[in-house]
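== Polypeptide entry ==
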Amino acid sequence: MIIKNISKKTAIATEAKIADNFITRLKGLLGSDHLEEGRALIIRPCNGVHTIGMNYSIDVIFIDKNDKVIKIVVDMPSRKISTCSNASYVIETPSGVVSMTNTTIGDIISIL
C-alpha cells in the first residue's frame, strides 16, 4: 500500500502494511529492530499506541474517519504511550517522515 498526503502532494510511505485484526494490532511493530525508510504500519481501528518494548523512535500520525490528520507525535521514543480519542486509525512511520513530508494537522491522507 502507498500512503499519500493529498494536501501536501507527498508520499508518506511507498510500502505500508496494515494491522487490522486483534493479533496484528496487538503485535504492531514489536519485535522489529527498526522501520525502514519508505515503510509504515497502518493500525485500524486505533486511537492509541505505545512504544513499550521497542528500542527505536517513530513518528505517529492519528487520522480521523474523514482521513484528516488530527494529531501528530514526532520522534516518539521507546516506553511511551500516546492516545487520541477521535482517531479512527494510526500511521506509524520512521522518525523524520512527518518533517520530511511537511505533514501537519488538518492534512488529508490517502491510502492506495
